[in-house]
């Protein structure tokens, strides 16, 4: 009987230290950013669940990581708003070529990993039609290329698969 009670007590203390789950404040999102100005700050991410936010005159409580206001995107009609931009090859091994095909104006190229982390940011001057990005040292997986024309406020997004 003493052995059984000792075994149960030992099992209780051992199992008490074991956790089946742990919550960590990590977000796997496809994109996000943080911006501040003199009067406010804004943080946003894409690809996470929305939770409640409570506020009063002096306090602000946000549950979760980031929440949007009430604007929701329910459909994406066209990812490539500048139809003449192409990115190849896909899948890629060492280089990705971005061909702007005489698209007018300057362009900014952002390359993100699947965690939404910005890996490369390049400014492409007006008149340059082709740009190569070396990805040979990157791990295999999916990457997102976002090409922005700040003058016309248009953008194009492409998913690229990096293989060996």
The portion of residues assigned to helices is under 10%
- What form results from the Cα inertia axes? elongated
What's the number of extended β-strand segments?
11
Termini gap:
62 Å
How many domains in all?
Answer: 2
- Under CATH, the topology of the largest domain is which? Immunoglobulin-like
Q: What is the N-to-C succession of helices and strands?
A: HEEEEEEEEEEE
Please, could you describe this protein's structure?
This protein is mainly beta and 164 residues long. It folds into 2 domains: 26-75, no CATH class; 86-162, Immunoglobulin-like. It has one helix at 2-16; strands spanning 31-36, 41-46, 53-55, 60-62, 86-88, 95-99, 107-112, 118-124, 130-134, 141-149, 154-162. The strands form 4 sheets. A 4-stranded antiparallel beta sheet has the order 8-7-10-11, with no helix packed on it. Residues 67-79 have low confidence and may be disordered.
């Amino acid at each position: 009987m003493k052995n059984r009670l000792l075994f149960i007590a030992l099992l209780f203390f051992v199992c008490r230290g074991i956790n089946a789950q742990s919550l960590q404040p990590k977000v796997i999102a496809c994109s996000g950013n943080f911006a501040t100005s003199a009067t406010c700050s804004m943080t946003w991410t894409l690809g996470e669940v929305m939770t409640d936010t409570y506020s009063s005159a002096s306090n602000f409580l946000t549950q979760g990581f980031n929440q949007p206001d009430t604007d929701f995107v329910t459909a994406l009609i066209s990812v490539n708003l500048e139809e003449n931009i192409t990115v190849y090859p896909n899948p890629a091994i060492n280089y990705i070529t971005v061909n702007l095909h005489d698209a007018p104006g300057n362009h900014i190229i952002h390359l993100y990993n699947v965690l939404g982390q910005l890996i490369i940011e390049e400014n492409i001057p007006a008149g340059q039609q082709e740009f190569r990005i070396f990805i040979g040292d990157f791990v295999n997986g999916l990457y997102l290329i976002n090409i922005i024309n700040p003058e016309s406020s248009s953008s194009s997004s492409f998913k690229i698969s990096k293989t060996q």
